[in-house]
Structures are given as structure tokens and as C-alpha cells.
Amino acid sequence: SLQEFVSTSEYKGLAPGEKKYWIDEEISEMKRSGLELEGEAFDKVVELQKKISDLGTTFETNVAEDSTELYFAEAELEGTPAPIVGALAKKEGDESKLVVKLDYPTYFGIMKNCTVATTRKAVAEAFENRAFPSNLEVLKDVIRARHQLSTVLGYSSFSAYNLENKMIKTPANAAKFIEDLIPGLQKKWEIEKQLIIDNLHPSVVLSPEGDLYSYDIAFSINHIKQSKLNVSETEIQKYFPMDSTVKALFDIYQSFFDITFVQHNNGKELWHEDVSTLEVIDNNTKAVLGYVVLDLFPREGKFSHACCASVVPPCERKEEDGVFTPALTVVIANFPKATKDAQALFMHDDVETFFHEFGHAIHGLMGRSKMCTFAGTRVKRDFVELPSQMLEEWLWDRAILQKVSKHYQTGKPLPDELIDAKIASQNAFSGRDSLRQLQFAQFSLQLFNTEFNKEGSTLDTTQLYRDIQAKTIKGLKGSDNGHFECAFGHLMGYGAGYYGYMWSEVLAQDVFNYIKERDGLLSPELGKRYVKHIIGPGGSRDPNVLVREFLEREPSNAAFLAKLGITQ
User: Fold this and answer.
1) Residue 320 among the catalytic residues
2) How far is CA 462 from CA 135, 143, 159, 385, 472, in A?
3) In this predicted structure, what is the pLDDT of residue 234?
4) Residue 334 above 90 pLDDT?
5) Which DSSP helix (H) or strand (E) runs through 295?
6) Marked catalytic residue, from 76, 192, 316, 357
7) What is the average pLDDT across 193-197?
8) Which one has a higher pLDDT value, 485 or 422?
9) CA distances from 212 to 97, 198, 221, 373, 430 (A)
10) Is the omega angle on the peptide bond into residue 537 within 30 degrees of 0, that is, cis?
């Protein structure tokens, strides 16, 4: 067995490398799975794992099946986009009322645009009470079962167990990462909050203590963006016709990664005629790195979001040392399709999404390893988004924006005034947005830590969430009647690891800043360094080591904060 092998001289003589790293990772996972236990202890682990899985399914089912409805007269929905209001059904037995359900398009359409405060409040409270009270006890059962599982396996808490095999390693590291970001972000939020207060919409009223109500935030931010920042997404869209934009994006990838794309319009040989394939060739070796299948347009029955799927990983062929199997990835999206009468135009968000998902595809082709278990994007969970989040930053660089944009009629690049407005809007409320992410991160971390699960704890998840919210986003009055945690599905899949969203964003900005400071956004030399130290090893090395080697120092949150205009 592996455990016996670890005690041999052969193992002790192994040089640091992929094989030793795999053995150490496997030994750790065996312990985490309870395979070192025997008898009743092992049976208990199996029992608890099944219980946790079943509870997670129940939790998610309760959220999915929540059928909350609210009823409003059309006047009570004033300001809500006409397509949303027009799609609402009339209440059975009272056609003067429209039925509002809590799907995301309807919810956000109302919260960002409805000028009636009482409607916003009612919709917000209903949204924060999805799957309540059914999931309140389910969540407590999950917390208890995860804590019990962790203690049987020899850990102090589920947070300690959950984070051990991530980049962050420990709850203490995660807590420090969060705490180091909060003070600077709170200063920025104070400025943002004052901007809202100085430009209150007539429907927005402060609390007796002078705080903003949480149900007014999305509306107020949208109001400021429209009235003060003057960002016209429809005008920006005219500069991103799909064909020329995609070609320009491909040019960037080809330059930075020193590769060549050869397009094959082979959709009829695949699953739909709209699908095409890119053959990716290394310019130095002339070897085929792999293939990227592009399925970019919507159709009935298709997955409705954007993603990248790795199908064949780039593994080393056993019989040919240093020769790798060509990889295969699939980029799936739902971008607007051209018609006979109109070109397909990208929103800036669409361009960013494509760059992000295509980044995963390149990672899937270039993350090469001897062992398939480490190949491509098979990396630690809090590292997998770093490469693609880093590549998104290209689309906020002025020179790159001008390079990839081309007005669909005049052929001119995006003008400076639109670029300035777009960049200003990105960071306009980044303090609040980032604090909100850190609020969720703290909640998921503390929910499963030792203190919250100490003997005699009532597991008051609602109070914990309210306390964290009050300390993190000051000057914002949350609902006294909400139970947000009952529909916080990330608690099932991510456990204590919600910090990972912000973690990868901070690291991504640090890596991007290193490249940009060296004028490397189109540099094959920097691209080669990036491949060698960030995506090239796949999951065969500790990503903490990879990031340190690339940066030539310890990672820092300074670049992330500086991007937001926060000085330390």
C-alpha cells in the first residue's frame, strides 16, 4: 500500500517532483476519506458522508422548489423594465394584480429598477426567506454532521478539514486573508456610501440612524451609474461586432502564448453546424497542442450559461518521454447570433466572458503532466479560476480595448471617453461589492469553525449572519426578518471555502500586474514565463510555490487594492 511505501527507503530517496507530490497528496486524501480508520470509526465516517450528501440534496431541492409568489399592481412595479413586467402573469381571481416570482431576471430587474420602495422591500424580504423555514433545520443538521465527521477524522473543525487540501491550507490563513482586505475596502465603501447619500433617489429614505437600507442598495447603485457615470452599454456594444472581436481576441492569445490557431468549420461532423474547431499549434515546436471546440450560440435545449469543459487532458505518452497527447476542450457560450439583417454585437461583458472561458481552454491544453490526474485544469479548487480571472484583466486595459474594438459601421476603435466611463464604472462600487463577497466568506468560514460548533451552541445561523453583515458593511441596515442562509447554496458545495472567489481574484490581479508592469500583455517572453510557472505544470505542483516562483516574491493584495484606488 501507499502507506507502507512511504516508510521505505525508495520513497525517502525520491527527489521532489510529480511522483512524490502525487504520493503525498494521495496519502492525505486517504486520511481525509477515513481509510486509515477501522471498525466502528470507519463505519461512522461512511454513515456521516452519506448523511451529509443526502442533507445537501434536500437543501438544494428546497431552494429549487421554493414557490414564493408576491402580487403587485402594475403601478407598484413602476420603473421595472417593460419586458419583465410584460412577461408577468395575472393573479388568478384578481387580474388587477401581477404575479411576481423570485427567479433571478425578475428579482434583479425589480431590485435595480423599481422606483417604489415598498415593492423593493417586499421583494428583498421574500428573496431572503426562500426555503425558510424548511432549510433552517437542514442547515443545522449539515453543520452538526460535518463537525462530527471532522472530529472523527481527527480535525478540530470542518473548516480545518475543508481547507487543508486547498492553497489557503488553514482557517487561520483564510481569516487573515479576509481581515487584511476589509479595512481598505471599508474606506472605499464609506466614499461610495456618501456618493449614494448625496444623490438619493426620491424613493430612497435613510433609517432613523442615518443608514441605508439593504433593499435600496442595488437600486441606488444603478441610479448613480445611470445618472452620474453615463455608461451606455448599448453604445459600447456597437464597437464589438462578433467576427472582428473574436479575431482580435484570438490575435492576443496567439501573441502572448506564441501559438497559432487553425480554424476548421467542421460543425456538420460534430453535433451542430454552428460549432467549429480550433487546432492549436505551438509556434516553436510546431507540435499540435490540442483542439478547442467552440459552441458559442444559443439553441433550444442547450446549456444556458457559459463554461469550458476539458474532454481529453494533455498527458505524457508513456512510450515517448516528453511527448504529450493533444488535448481537447470545449468552450460553451450563448452569444447573440448574426441574422440576415443585423450583425451580432457583443456586450463588453460578453467579450470578458469569452476571454475568461477561452482562458480555461488554453489552461486545459497547456497544463501538461506525466500523470493525467494532474493534467489540464485539474488543480486545487482555489487556484483553478486564477488564470482565467487574470486574463479578464486584458479587457480593462486601454490599449487592448482599442485593439479589440471596431465600430460595426465606421470601423473606428472605442473612443477614450467611452473607455474612461467603462473603467470608472468597473470600480465605482467595488468597495461594497468586495465587502459583500468577504461577508459571505466570513460567514461560511465561521459557520463551520470550532467556536460556532462548541458544546452547547444553539447554532443560530441567522444571528451569525446578521452580526457579520453589521461589522463588515457598516452603515447598511439589513433585514430583521430575513434568513439569507436558507438559500445560500454555496454552503453545500463550497463548505467553508467561499473565500476562494476573492482569493483567486486577488492573486489574479497580482499576476496580471507583474505582466503589465513589464509591458508584457502581448509578449511571448512573458507568456512563456506564465505558462512555465502558472498553467504549464497543471496540478502537479503546489500552486503556492508556482505563484511565488512566477512573482519572484510572496503574493500580495497590494495590486488588487491599488486597482480599486485604495492605498495602504
Assistant:
1) no
2) 12, 14, 19, 30, 16
3) 80
4) no
5) strand 288-295
6) 357
7) 97
8) 485
9) 29, 12, 12, 49, 17
10) no
Q: What is the pLDDT of residue 409?
A: 92
Cα–Cα distances in angstroms (integers) from residue 426 to residues 142, 160, 421, 433, 563, in the given order: 37, 35, 9, 11, 10
Reported residue count of the chain is 568
C-alpha distance from residue 484 to each of 112, 433, 514, 568 (Å)? 19, 17, 38, 33
- pLDDT value of position 557: 96
Q: Which residue has the cell 457598516?
A: 474
Place of cell 497559432: 260
115-152: pLDDT as tens digits: 999 999 999 999 999 999 999 999 999 999 999 999 99
Judge contact between 261 and 242, C-beta under 8 A.
Answer: no
- pTM to 2 decimal places: 0.91
- Summarize pLDDT for 525-563 with one digit per residue, the tens: 999 999 999 999 999 999 999 999 999 999 999 999 999
How far is CA 377 from its chain centroid? 15
Amino acid type, 427: N
φ/ψ of 250, rounded to 5, equals -60, -40
Grid cell, residue 207, equals 433609517
3-state SS string for 74-139:
HHHHCCCCHHHHHCCCEECCEEEEEEECCCHHHHHHHHHHCCCHHHHHHHHHHHCCCCCCHHHHHH
Q: What does the pLDDT read at residue 226?
A: 84
Distances (CA, A) of 174 to 227, 443, 447, 499, 501: 38, 12, 13, 7, 12
Given a contact cutoff of 8 angstroms between Cβ atoms, the answer to whether 464 and 457 are in contact is no
Element (H, E) at 21: helix 18-32
* 500-527 residue pLDDT tens: 999 999 999 999 999 999 999 999 999 9
Among all chains, which residue has been given the C-alpha cell 487561520?
A: 172
